[in-house]
Known about the structure:
Bound molecules: copper (II) ion
Number of helices: 4
CATH superfamily of the largest domain: Cupredoxins -  blue copper proteins
Largest sheet: 5 strands, mixed
CATH topology of the largest domain: Immunoglobulin-like
Order of helices and strands: HHEEEHEHEEEE
Shape: globular
Radius of gyration: 20 Å
Helix content: 25-40%
Structural class: alpha/beta
Strand order of the largest sheet: 2-8-7-4-5
Strand content: 25-35%
CATH class of the largest domain: Mainly Beta
Number of domains: 2
Amino acid sequence: MKPYRLTSTFLILTLVLVGFVSCKETSKTEMVKKEMTSEELEKLSKQDTITILLNSNDKMQFDKSEITAFEGQTVILTLKHTGTMPVTAMGHNFVLISKGVSVSEFAKIAIKAKENDYIPRDLKHVIAHTDLIGGGDSTTVIFKVPAKGTYDFLCSFPGHSAIMKGKFNVK
Ligand SMILES: [Cu+2]
């Protein structure tokens, strides 16, 4: 019985280790700043509708720091929270803000709108936003791409926009 038990203990240990390693591997949603090739941009510019998947995690990160779209296109943006933490502790949203306001200025306004999931009732600075979600959830927003230029996007959950922000480039 002894060698059998030893083998099964070893097997369980190995399984736990493998599980741990693969778990670590999948939770790696690091920031990827990938430049688009001219062919990719060309292809993108011809689409009426573009779909974007933006991942977020328990480490307070988006997986994109830059999004590119073309004026007049319709964007179907899905925000996914790949973590497990609840919305009250690690809530995320995607907010695309207008040019007249900076990320830090907007964050200061948004923090006062807790009752509205950190979206100010006055939407004058908001071009588009998703719902606020917790781990395991996803949410989609559909919006028209604004005029050419560079816009900012952020997560308006308190304290997150210092890291969770990026550029929305309209060509
Ligand atoms: Cu967030």
